[in-house]
Specification:
Elements: E1 5-11, H1 18-27, E2 34-39, H2 46-52, E3 64-67, H3 72-88, E4 96-100, H4 108-113, H5 117-120, E5 123-133, H6 134-138, H7 146-153, H8 165-175, E6 178-182, H9 189-202, E7 208-211, H10 219-222, E8 276-283, H11 289-303, E9 307-313, E10 319-326, E11 329-337, E12 345-352, H12 357-365
Parallel strand pairs: 1-4, 1-5, 2-3, 2-4, 5-6, 6-7
Antiparallel strand pairs: 8-12, 9-10, 9-12, 10-11
The structure holds guanosine-5'-triphosphate (GTP).
Region (Disordered): 240-271
Catalytic activity: GTP + H2O = GDP + phosphate + H(+)
Biased composition (Basic and acidic residues): 244-271
Amino acid sequence: MPAKIPATVVTGFLGAGKTTLIRHMLENANGKRIALIINEFGDLGVDGGILKGCGIEGCAEEDVMELSNGCICCTVADDFIPTMQKLLDRETAPDHIVIETSGLALPQPLVRAFNWPEISTRVTVDGVVTVVDGKAVTEGRFAHDVAAVDAQRARDENLDHETPLSELFADQVACADMIVVNKADLLGEAEAADLVEKLRRDSRDGVQVIKATMGALPLDVLLGQGVGAETDMEARHEIHHHHGHDDDHHDDHDHDHDHDHDDHDHHHHDHDHDAFESFVVTRPEIADPTRFAAQVAEVIRAHDILRLKGFAAVEGKPMRLTLQAVGPRVDSYFDRPFGTEARETRLVVIGQAGLDRAAIERALSA
Ligand SMILES: Nc1nc2c(ncn2[C@@H]2O[C@H](COP(=O)(O)OP(=O)(O)OP(=O)(O)O)[C@@H](O)[C@H]2O)c(=O)[nH]1
């Protein structure tokens, strides 16, 4: 049976920067066939328009599909499943599917829909990426334009509309496999670091929290998380169930809409290139794959490495040992015999700028 096609779910409040992040990803897809599904709930398909008109090479119009309006729980059979099937039945199936949940305050119902038998054998949720507006969260507003978010979620039948944004935010964080603290350009260094720390504490173990400006993240960091989120929904609790009646939580936050934060600094493009770095570490054969995987996991933890991948040569084994690490999770398996390439261990390390390359090289070579 062919491998399941990975699908990444991108969530976050209106204005957090989901579309910007997806645009950046499509612009840097490097030949990877990415299909995009947009759930423009109760909206005018504005995002679809923007993305279709993006003029990005390799981004064909038929690669963008839109889900019709309506509560995902109720329309899953009529809309979401057929859309997915259409995508999967194409002659050339996409390499990766990205779903932008524009109109959904919470991603859980969508992720759950991947368990439907019609599609569950063919696609899997590679990971849930929660994009947050770093500036707004720091200020306790959670979204740039609180009034617009309120208006949008008033149309979301999934939610009890009294729920404070802070709680919806907590649910988005609980569902995340990766949290992107976007609009880092509007935050000071210390402010950004504090927010990253806080979100690390508030999210599940192993969730990566990454700063970004204009959603500029390497494809290798964003995609290929390999989580299978639909299979562990219990861990991604959501407080607000479908048409649920929640206790009467009211927060006393004075949602001050009058902040004027439109003085955005547009010099951030200059920093895109310095935000992340990657390098290759090579070493001779390793002796023990299990010990080496543990060693890799330790290095990843100690140095806050986002991704590490490559292969190892194992003493006495003709096969290459493929290694893939997303955060502290290290997967390894023997994939094929070495061919003409050198019989050595070769690992690509990816992280936010400022990695201690010398120390990492030493630790991986020990
Ligand atoms: N200063 C700053 N502005 C940003 C950044 N990322 C996005 N923006 C701006 O924030 C606004 C909202 O970004 P979008 O990408 O449309 O947000 P979204 O989450 O897709 O919003 P919806 O699709 O409407 O739910 C746009 O004006 C972006 O240009 C960033 O990192 N820094």
